[in-house]
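F.,

This is the one I mentioned.
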């Protein structure tokens, strides 16, 4: 899979893309990350890419010409002229695990990093979608692009050493992930749950599922409205709700 990232600050990506899982995936040729400096496509010798907004107001706005010239140059090099072109901005669709999985099926993905007070509205006529990684404002789209590349790459076959890992991550089936333990068995008086030491795979699987349900109910109850739940899950949640209700009454 190829990621083409249009940015004013390509140097920001050096650290995150030069270590750990992403670096190994790049080295093995599973993913390719191209950093395109938007300033290289500025129409003037000063390489300016922004200007004051029409109508007045604070800050500067990224002009359309450098961005679209950079995008057209990227698309000319592509084998396929189609594929998502995503603008990273606060007004975009909320980024989710489901969206990351969907984007991972693409061969190419273009990410445009906004900056300053945003981009000229006419740029939106050239994109296929907009993504926000949360309800807050960053200084630019670079950090958001890093998040998108990381999350999407995890779903590309071969990127992770354990191919089943994405299926057990938080949000994979709409729930938060269950608690995890490793050695030592006892740490400062805190013990690993006995069920995890039992070797009984069915019991371990059920314990993990129930702990995921509990954690989701406590921390993100709204996720249960759309999570994939079976009859056993619903029965467990009913019993859990009844226990909590009794505890509240007794308290």
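My design for it:
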């Amino acid at each position: 899979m190829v990621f083409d990232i249009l940015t004013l600050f390509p140097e920001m990506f050096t650290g995150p893309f030069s270590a750990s899982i992403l670096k190994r995936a790049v080295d093995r040729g599973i993913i390719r990350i191209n950093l395109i400096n938007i300033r290289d496509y500025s129409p003037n010798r000063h390489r300016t890419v922004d200007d004051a907004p029409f109508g007045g107001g604070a800050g500067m706005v990224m002009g359309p010409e450098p961005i679209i010239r950079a995008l057209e140059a990227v698309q000319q090099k592509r084998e396929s002229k189609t594929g998502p072109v995503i603008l990273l901005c606060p007004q975009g669709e909320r980024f989710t695990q489901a969206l990351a999985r969907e984007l991972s099926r693409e061969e190419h993905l273009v990410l445009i990093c906004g900056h300053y007070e945003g981009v000229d509205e006419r740029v939106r006529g050239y994109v296929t979608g907009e993504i926000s990684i949360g309800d807050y404002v960053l200084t630019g789209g670079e950090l958001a692009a890093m998040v998108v590349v990381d999350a999407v790459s995890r779903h590309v076959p071969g990127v992770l050493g354990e191919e089943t890992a994405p299926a057990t991550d938080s949000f994979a089936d709409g729930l938060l992930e269950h608690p995890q333990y490793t050695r030592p068995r006892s740490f400062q008086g805190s013990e690993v749950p006995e069920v995890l030491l039992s070797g009984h795979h069915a019991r371990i699987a059920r314990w993990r599922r129930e702990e995921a349900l509990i954690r989701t109910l406590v921390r993100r109850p709204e996720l249960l409205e759309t999570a994939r739940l079976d009859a056993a899950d619903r029965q467990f949640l009913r019993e859990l709700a009844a226990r909590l209700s009794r505890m509240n009454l007794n308290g």
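Residues 186-250 form a domain with the Trp Operon Repressor; Chain A fold (CATH 1.10.1270.20).

Talk soon.
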